[in-house]
Amino acid sequence: MMLKRLFVLLPLAVLAACTTSPLGRSQLQLFSDADLSQMGLAAYDDIRKKQPTDANPAANAYVRCVADAITAVVPGNGQSWQVTLFRDDSANAFALPGGKIGVNSGLLKVATNQDQLATVVGHEVAHVLARHSGERLSNQAVVDTGLQAAQAISGSMSPAKQQLMGLLGVGAQVGVLLPFSRTQESEADLLGLDLMARAGFDPRQSVALWQNMERANSGGPPVFLSTHPSSGGRIEALQNRLPQALELYQQARAQGRKPACRAP
């Protein structure tokens, strides 16, 4: 009887949970912002317990400078954001619901200036703004016909908890690679480009960053590209949006937003 009731109620819940992404795409969102924030904070705390942090003061100040400039222009920004620099040679980063950002020290070798680092940070924050984690969790919950994945955040690092953290976007940190879809990646690219431009970072450097990513690690793609698959048209899509982003960039500069973050 309970199973029958679930199959009756689930379609109604799905219909009620249909929302629209910042770029106008239909999304399924079964989880509230409070739910997502709680899961994001728990995942972030778990990563901080397991991943060593980088204590270099100059590197930390640099990453915080870029992240602070990006999050300062987040639409409707009503929360504080925390950024942590992890001691990890892989060129990777992530952002989680609840205002948490993680950057690996290895990314600073690939993102060679503040604008390129802002490309990555903006991209990751855009995933949060577009609620991509909630969308993936919602889709998984429908497949599971339940919310086991959301409940798995407590306790030890079980397979269910690893899956949840992968769905939130931190799979590389827990050994589970669950990449965002190409559609979500494309949205994060374009939204992130606008975000970095509004913060006063040069959006033209986004193309150089992705070129650097592709050249990094001749033996194979860097972790960032492994967990964030790149379509052949990624750079082309960025170039097509550059005229709009450059207008935002020029407006930001005219309004005094001129980040001067010094790389270590």
Number of helices: 12
Q: How many individual β-strands?
A: 5
Straight-line N-to-C gap = 62 Å
The stretches of 5 or more residues where confidence is low (pLDDT under 50) are: 1-16, 149-154, 172-177
Q: Mean pLDDT, as a whole number? A: 78
Adjacency order of strands in the biggest sheet: 3-5-4
Q: Largest sheet at a glance?
A: 3 strands, mixed
Helix content: 55-70%
The SSE order reads: HEEHHEEEHHHHHHHHH
Kindly name the structural category.
mainly alpha
What global shape is seen? globular
What integer value in Å does the Rg equal? 18 Å
Percent in strands: 5-15%
Walk me through what this model shows.
With 264 residues, the protein is mainly alpha-helical. The protein has helices at 2-16, 33-50, 57-71, 114-129, 132-144, 148-151, 159-168, 171-174, 182-198, 205-215, 223-227, 234-254, and strands spanning 18-20, 26-28, 82-86, 93-96, 100-104. The chain has a three-stranded mixed β-sheet with strand order 3-5-4. Strands 1-2 form a two-stranded antiparallel ribbon. Strand 1 (18-20) and strand 2 (26-28) form a beta hairpin. The longest helix is centred in the C-terminal third of the chain and has 21 residues, at 234-254. It is globular and about 40 Å long.
Secondary structure topology:
Layout: H1 2-16, E1 18-20, E2 26-28, H2 33-50, H3 57-71, E3 82-86, E4 93-96, E5 100-104, H4 114-129, H5 132-144, H6 148-151, H7 159-168, H8 171-174, H9 182-198, H10 205-215, H11 223-227, H12 234-254
Parallel strand pairs: 3-5
Antiparallel strand pairs: 1-2, 4-5
Helix pairs in contact: 3-4, 4-9, 4-10, 9-12
